[in-house]
Amino acid sequence: MLRHCKALLSEVSRLPGVDGNAKMSKSLGNTLTLSASEEEIHRAVSAMYTDPTHLRVSDPGHVDGNVVFTYLDAFHSDKALVAEMKAHYQRGGLGDRQCKNELETCLQALLAPIRERRATYSQDKGMLLELLRQGSERAPPAHAADAA
User: Fold this and answer.
1) pTM, whole model, 2 decimals?
2) Which domains does the chain have, with CATH numbers?
3) Per-residue DSSP letters for 50-111?
4) What is the pLDDT of residues 7-20, one digit of tens each?
């Protein structure tokens, strides 16, 4: 008998491109990849679309449609801090650069261990092939047990 699956869904259904377009796409050049370097993340976050009416730090801003806040909602672990930042941004007094700095710090911390593992595995192709071989040996018995 097949096991029942439990859906693991994010609160954010789809991330927009860093340029504010509804779709993230490599061909449009508006993506953040897991393999991005620190500098690539910095450039992407610095260029992120924000509220075009938020011209001065003192101006009240809109968080709906603001890509920086969409990404903060998706990736920042401190939801209370993000909520406070949203309120501060909406009443004015919080600049786009401060929001982007917080997002960049969050993304760099999230991606650092992924970069490290990727570097480790890419240096030892033999180990990577061995892990794939071991996984392929285990896969058929696991599938057979689920189907029984």
Assistant:
1) 0.80
2) 38-142 (1.10.240.10)
3) --TT--STTS----TT-HHHHHHHHH-S-HHHHHHHHHHHHHS---HHHHHHHHHHHHHHHH
4) 777 676 788 999 98
